[in-house]
Design a protein that fits this description.
Elements (H helix, E strand, L loop, with lengths): L5 E2 L10 E2 L6 H9 L4 H7 L5 H17 L8 H4 L1
Antiparallel strand pairs: 1-2
């Protein structure tokens, strides 16, 4: 199961979910995809990542949406 590649440690990374064996948070990786990074760019830039760990990022995000575990992120227009 892909979700075993994601873990939370409350005392690290402010409790954000990260990819096992890295310091890369799910939020950070989704942000890179959101601005146009490709899977290939991520795998080349972060050698500890695997195609499976990137799929785990999306599996985790999908599970959060199903469980309605959402973080409130203000839009840039709301922040000003």
């Amino acid at each position: 199961m892909l979700l075993i590649l994601i873990y939370l440690r409350v005392w690290q990374w402010i409790g954000k979910p990260v990819i096992k064996g890295t310091r890369l948070s799910v939020e950070f990786l989704l942000g890179l995809f959101a601005v146009g990074w490709t899977e290939q760019q991520l795998l080349e830039s972060y050698p500890n990542l695997t195609p499976e760990s990137l799929r785990a990022v999306f599996a985790f995000a999908a599970e959060c949406m199903r469980e309605e575990i959402l973080y409130n992120i203000p839009l840039s227009s709301e922040a000003s």
